[in-house]
Amino acid sequence: MNLDPTDPEGSIARAAKASSNWGRWGADDVLGTLNHLDEAKRREGAALVRRGVSFSLSQRFDMNGPQKGWRRRTNPVHTMLDTGTDAALGNQGFPHGIGGADDVISMPLQCSTQWDGLGHIFDHGKAWNGRPAERVVTSDGDLVTGIEHMASHVAGRGVLLDVGRTIGADGVSGADGTAGTTATAGTTAAAGELPDGFAVTEAHLTATAEAQGVAIGRGDIVLVRTGQLARVRRDGWGDYAGGPAPGLSFTTAGWLHGSEIAAIATDTWGFEVRPNEFEHAFQPLHQVAIPHIGLLIGEMWDLDALARDCAADGVYEFWLTAAPLPITGAVGSPVNPIAVK
């Protein structure tokens, strides 16, 4: 895809038309690309378990998270309702010495490791499958494609594409020898980390898969590690939530559609490269991938421990289960993905 940075509207329209899955699985579809993840693919994924070692791919949900208040997103607020002190003082009123603790958490569903549901993004008032956005998501929630519909589906073959390690900190040392964009000024990227502002192209994804000796196929859940999360853990959150970041180039829309993957997730806040590649644009790849391709997108996943293990044993495929919470009518969900090798 040729990218004209001065024409976001035209580029989005062309990419949406070329990669649309509207009607592919019927007018009533609520799963989008998860339709690619069938029973055979789950059996294939389950057969990848050899050592039994498991990895949580979630950040911790606490007040030390990345959020800074953009769009009223806050870090989780954890409050105890009953404590050991209450039990020890006999304030709970239970018989024969039994006591307990209870707690509550308040948080935006997109505040940390999460899935973007199909009702999260619209294009010119259209939601997934061409439905009118105002009839899909109302003040009562997502009435059609709520995240609860996906709760039993997100389990299968996971594939890690460690672009950070393969392409290199300078953004030039990959097999294709090119960088996606110029890195954001002031970025300091260590080995295994892409600089902020680096656009990951289809060529980078392909080069990474080839270097790792792994293939991407229909129904796979693809995880793209840029290394940005490792950097902010070292240097501080900074503008991780909403600021500059490495990420997928808008030009990968065709690959996301044509590869027939079931879902994709990254270790960054916004999945796609930031700043975005167009003038006066905001998350243009989301605008194509969610409402037109019907793609399930994950953000802020912690891929570092898994990546170290994959680099050590040379195996970049695994069983992955990453079910969203079945929150009725939600357009996103926190998740604790588990990869098992």
CATH topology of the largest domain: Glucose Oxidase, domain 1
The major sheet is characterized as:
9 strands, mixed
What percentage of amino acids are in beta strands?
A: 15-25%
Helix fraction, binned, reads: 10-25%
Provide the structure class: alpha/beta
Question: Strand order within the widest sheet?
Answer: 1-15-13-7-9-11-12-4-14
Number of strands: 15
CATH superfamily heading of the largest domain: Putative cyclase
Gap between N and C termini, in Å?
A: 36 Å
Please tell me how large the radius of gyration is: 21 Å
Low-pLDDT sequence parts: 173-182
Overall outline: globular
Order of helices and strands: HHEEHEEHEEEHEHEHEHEHEHEEE
Structure explained in plain terms:
This protein has 341 residues and is an alpha/beta fold. It has helices spanning 8-19, 39-46, 84-88, 133-136, 163-167, 202-212, 228-235, 253-258, 284-293, 304-313; strands at 54-56, 77-82, 102-106, 114-116, 137-138, 141-142, 155-162, 199-200, 221-225, 247-248, 263-266, 296-299, 317-321, 332-334, 338-340. The strands form 4 sheets. A 9-stranded mixed β-sheet has the order 1-15-13-7-9-11-12-4-14. Strand 11 (263-266), helix 9 and strand 12 form a beta-alpha-beta unit. Helix 1 runs parallel beside helix 9. The radius of gyration is 21 Å and the shape is globular. The protein starts with 7 loop residues before the first helix and ends with a strand. The model is unreliable at 173-182 (pLDDT under 50).
